[in-house]
Request: fold
Amino acid sequence: MHKQQLIDHTPALMRIVDKYQDGEDLCHFTFAPFNEGESLNKDEMPDLCNINKVQPGQFMMLTIPNAGEAAFTYASMPDENGHFHCLIRKIGELTDALFELEPGAMVGGRGPMGQGWPNLKDKKVLVIAGGCGLAPVAAKVDALIEASAEPVVYFSARNEAMLVMKKERERWQEQCKLYEAVDDCSGASKSYLAGRQLADNLDQIIQDDGPFDHVITCGPEGMMLAVCRIMEGKGFPADHIWLSLERRMHCGVGLCGHCYMADHLVCVDGPTYRWDQLGELVVKEKAIRAPESPLDMGHAASNCGEEKEGCDGNGGCGCR
Ligand SMILES: Cc1cc2nc3c(=O)[nH]c(=O)nc-3n(C[C@H](O)[C@H](O)[C@H](O)COP(=O)(O)OP(=O)(O)OC[C@H]3O[C@@H](n4cnc5c(N)ncnc54)[C@H](O)[C@@H]3O)c2cc1C
Ligand code: FES
Reply:
């Protein structure tokens, strides 16, 4: 049952204060409250820029007049002045328009939205991210570091150019244990773990840095499924594995039904889920859909085109 409140969904005004390329077709944006020059106190700060209102793992809806609105995850928590970061891929109409804008430009935003990651500040956490999935876990990594929880981070990408958030990773090298992997090492400037060997890499990390209390993962859905199955295969409890789902969203506040999965609305009940909850949801959704319609778990999902022997279609053979 989703309780609807009469709340104002008018976007707050924000300003782009910084923008730089951070991976292929990806830009790192810094946003700030539009009226920050008027030395805002915390009560006047729009919620979406308010350090006390945002949790790592939540998202906001970015509006560009005449281009539309779309969901983006907080890649950092807002600071005292309301500045926060997002890592954004140029993929369609809204992001094309956003990439044309320069620092100083005005945009709109609504948020924060959805459920963030659990607290876990006194836990030993393994964070596993793939590709752009690093953005939704980045603020959580920083929060765990700040809480002296010493997270261990494993990050893999298709190739070196897709190893996003370079500045944050350089900082984490000093602040926590960071493992980096790429699928295609050709031309790489240094040596990396082999991204396709996820199970072997996790074995090694658990042996060297484990045991872990919780796992947080975000990336292509095939990778997240592989992580969950590998960890479960090692006897790791499903209710200690957390992941973030990306579903097509329109309203972001539980009104339009675009993001529904089984009886959940991912925009308000998610996007973060425990693996035991999610497994149940996937089973329910399969039961609801016509048998011939494939289970679409978001645009990052893909099938193994090579039909390798032993592939369960979920990345276990390294096909994703
Ligand atoms: C909770 C959440 C957090 C997100 N965080 C980020 C983030 O931090 N950075 C980022 O770059 N993107 C993020 N996204 C994705 C972003 O909202 C979409 O890529 C958005 O559609 C971009 O708008 P656009 O107008 O540029 O592209 P569109 O024109 O909307 O999309 C271009 C093409 O991609 C397809 N497509 C895009 N998104 C989806 C989807 N979710 N499911 C199925 N098909 C899709 C469209 O069908 C279309 O073919 C997030 C999405 C969600 C739900
Ligand atoms: S996006 Fe509208 S209900 Fe979730």
